[in-house]
Amino acid sequence: MPFEIISKHLNGIKVVKNTVFPDERGSFTEMFRSDLFNEIDLPYEFVQENFSISKKNVLRGLHFQWDPPMGKLMRVVFGKAFLVAVDIRQGSPTIGKWFGMEIEGDDNIQVWAPPGFARGFLSLANPTGVQYLCTGIYNKTGESNIRWDDPDIGIEWPHKTPFLSEKDKIAQSFSDWTSSPQSKKFEF
After folding, report:
1. Disulfide check for 2: which of 30, 37, 67, 161 has CB 3.0–4.6 Å away?
2. How many degrees, rounded to 5, is the angle at CA 167 between CA 162 and CA 172?
3. What is the DSSP code string of 42-86?
4. Half-sphere exposure of 131 toward its Cβ, with a 13 Å CA cutoff?
5. Calpha distance 32→137 (Å, rounded)
6. Whole-angstrom distance, CA of residue 104 vs CA of residue 153
């Protein structure tokens, strides 16, 4: 099987290992296949693919979208990154908890987080390329973000003074999100 779920976290996150087929020319890896994703209970109706390249110590996140709800399958294509997902689902036993994993481009690992998780990553190499397969089309009016350093979440980032976008510098707190009417869009 080209895909294996090697761990599960926070009632929804799945870490997927891809099989690499090396030979004298290099290697071949299937990154996505709908029939096999269906067999291991991963979504297989992705509608948007994004790719970002970041300098070392750039932090992107914590981002999420409720309209339409967006799950993301993320992988590091080159470089190295600390990928993070935070459970923001109302009624979830793991709400406010986070999962993080350091991944290098040649690890052949993907991390799935369904809708209801805020996602982010910190680039640990210069440059780092991250690919996202998304289950929803981007909608600026149906998305938001939470502070990367919110003390109520307590993510243990490997770098404490990252480079942030203006949008991420003014992100809302986790408690502001959980008390907002939009937070009801993600119920466990």
Report:
1. 30
2. 95
3. ------EEEEEEE-TTBEEEEEEEBTTB--EEEEEEESEEEEEEE
4. 14
5. 18
6. 25
Residues annotated as catalytic are 63, 132
- Domains of the chain plus CATH, in order, are 3-181 (2.60.120.10)
Nearest to 133 by CA among 55, 70, 184: 70
- Tokens 């440059």 locate to 127
Taking the model in full, what pTM does it have?
Answer: 0.94
Q: Are 62 and 148 in contact (CB under 8 A)?
A: yes
